[in-house]
Amino acid sequence: MKLLILDRDGVINEDSDAYIKTLDEWIPIPSSITAIARLSQAGWTVAVATNQSGIARGYYDMATLESMHARLRQLVAEQGGEVGLIVHCPHGPDDGCDCRKPKPGMLQQIAAHYATELAGIWFVGDSSGDLQAALAVDCQPVLVKTGKGERTLAKPLPPGTLVFDDLAAVADQLLS
Ligand SMILES: O=P(O)(O)OC[C@@H](O)[C@H]1O[C@@H](OP(=O)(O)O)[C@@H](O)[C@@H](O)[C@@H]1O
Ligand SMILES: [Mg+2]
Ligand SMILES: [Zn+2]
Questions:
Q1: In this structure, are strands 122-125 and 3-6 parallel, antiparallel, or unpaired?
Q2: CATH code for position 72
Q3: What confidence tens digit (pLDDT) does each residue in 105-148 have?
Q4: What's the rounded Cα separation, in Å, for the pair 53 and 143?
């Protein structure tokens, strides 16, 4: 199946070092919304795997997180596309969960949901933890320069990492 997995903050929407704590702070990257719509209209399933330690930290609750994801689905639907499964890790760095990137648990959850293998599936992120999670399950690590991408690019990347300016450029490549 044509499955693409995305990180959320810094790829789909703007990120902040102060976390994305409210719906108003969830600011979509317009070209990313269009990219998701274009991909899904072309038969791609676009899933999301996002760390949301702000839940564990008490910065925001599940209702707020779900409101952000409802807004994402609405914006993509307005452009004729749809968003697939969105998986989040609500845990903190010290909780020892299996889902927080760089662990690959969320990627494995997505693969199980769609009854597909992960090998070679592109996982698009802006942080090194995203790239490490991809490598852990033989996904293709893809770095975008939006969000924390430029910071991530300043450090050595895992061999084989593909680099694009933004999600729109990733979509252009996949749809070419
Ligand atoms: O990029 P994704 O995975 O969609 O989400 C990242 C967010 O959960 C937050 O992750 C935090 O990392 P810590 O969780 O505090 O290590 C910080 O990097 C925040 O700036 C960022 O907004
Ligand atoms: Mg991110
Ligand atoms: Zn977790």
A1: parallel
A2: 3.40.50.1000
A3: 999 999 999 999 999 999 999 999 999 999 999 999 999 999 99
A4: 21
Decide: 37 and 76 in contact? Cβ < 8 Å: yes
pTM of the model: 0.98
Cβ of 19 closer than 6 Å to ligand 1, yes or no, is yes
Q: Which residue has the tokens 């969960």?
A: 97
* ipTM of the complex, rounded to two decimals: 0.96
> What is the CA(53)–ligand 3 centre distance, in A?
8
Rg of the Cα atoms in the chain: 15
How many whole angstroms separate alpha carbon 118 and alpha carbon 111?
6
Spatial contact of 122 and 49, defined as CB atoms under 8 Å apart: no
DSSP assignment letter at 57: T
Instruction: Tell me how many domains the chain contains.
Output: 1
